[in-house]
Write a structure and sequence with these properties.
By secondary structure, this protein is mainly alpha-helical. Helix content is 80%, strand content 0%. The chain contains seven helices and no strands. It starts with a helix and ends in a 5-residue tail after the last helix.
Length: 184
């Protein structure tokens, strides 16, 4: 039988693979001019952006005053996300993060943003990360991250930078949840 963490990896690979497949079909059918961008700049900008997003996330979880939106995000991390990722292993973190970075960025930045613009892509990105009314604040935070990732795609001239940023940020966030989030 699969462990919980192994099931998460399988679900991430299947779900994000489906998103990526839909995005690639959409990009091709609509003839959208989607590029990867310069590889060196994409990796450098992506890693820099991931580090900045991780710092902001850490500040929200550990340093921000406990106002309502901050408490809502902390509760989501404590009650939903930390238990979900409590047993993931490093290779599973890498697989989940890479799948999310590729699948979601192909869809939201590669297809939706190319077709409808930054605002629509960012708002839909936020909605896609909500699990209901209790995660509204988290959805807003993810929409803000979507604006950053969309701007990064524009700045870097392609999808490599936001894919790297998304995957690296997710790896840091999941690792934090797995090993350091006690007391959030």
């Amino acid at each position: 039988m699969f462990k919980q963490s192994s099931r998460l990896l399988v679900v991430a690979l299947a779900g994000e693979g489906l998103l990526g497949g839909v995005a690639l079909a959409w990009i091709r059918l609509r003839g959208l001019g989607v590029e990867a961008g310069d590889p060196v700049a994409g990796i450098e900008l992506g890693l820099g952006a991931a580090f900045l997003l991780a710092l902001v996330n850490y500040a929200i979880l550990r340093l921000a005053p406990p106002i309502h939106p901050v408490r809502a995000i902390r509760r989501l991390y404590r009650e939903t996300l930390r238990p979900m990722f409590a047993t993931v292993r490093p290779l599973e973190i890498a697989g989940i993060s890479l799948a999310a970075g590729v699948g979601e960025e192909l869809l939201f930045r590669g297809a939706v943003q190319a077709e409808f613009g930054l605002v629509v892509a960012s708002v839909l990105f936020g909605f896609a990360h909500m699990g209901g009314r209790s995660s509204l604040v988290f959805g807003l935070w993810v929409a803000v991250m979507g604006f950053g990732l969309g701007g990064l795609a524009h700045l870097a001239g392609g999808l490599l930078a936001p894919i790297v940023a998304h995957a690296a940020y997710d790896a840091m966030a999941i690792s934090y949840l797995r090993w350091a989030a006690h007391g959030v």
